What does this fold into?
Amino acid sequence: MCVQPAFIIGTNNEDGTYNFAPITWVSITNEKDNDYLLVISMFGTKMTKQNVIRTSKLSVNLVSTDMLELMDYFGTHHAKDGKKDGISYNICRGEVVDVPILDTSRWVYECEVAHSVEIGDSTTFFCKIKNVQVDEKLACDDTFDINLTKLEPVIYSGMYHSIGELLGKIGDFTK
Ligand SMILES: Cc1cc2nc3c(=O)[nH]c(=O)nc-3n(C[C@H](O)[C@H](O)[C@H](O)COP(=O)(O)O)c2cc1C
It folds into this structure.
């Protein structure tokens, strides 16, 4: 069991169309100063993984609870079986990286792969964050000061969950 935040990854297909798939093996690391890298692992031969290997570009769209139907659809369909057009959604293009982005996501990273590591059938991508698009209602100066309950993120670990209340910040519980 591993508690995982849910994201939908947007990529460019070889024929110029786009594709989306949920990926929840997502974490973060830091090279230096403010150079954060998203760490994203993909298993097997899925189109999303092939697209990232080929183009080095991806959008990372946070999944809120109102996006569950979309995530479930993208995760139970495979691009190799045809375009995922059995559900309606709006997309735009990245402001900095040329990738498809889900209009409905409240927090979106536009990324380029800086490094990748293969372990067996999985590839882990270390992705430079080139731009972040945040819902206007969440605008903030300090990224450590985000009230996650407003993002209503979906948490996954085999089943889908939502999060509870805001508990406090670092230091609040130290005497
Ligand atoms: C909730 C959820 C989380 C998932 N997380 C991952 C993941 O972290 N890594 C991965 O390789 N596949 C993951 N998958 C599987 C892909 O999303 C799934 O195979 C998808 O159909 C791939 O689409 P594609 O072939 O169009 O790329 C997940 C699926 C679901 C439903």
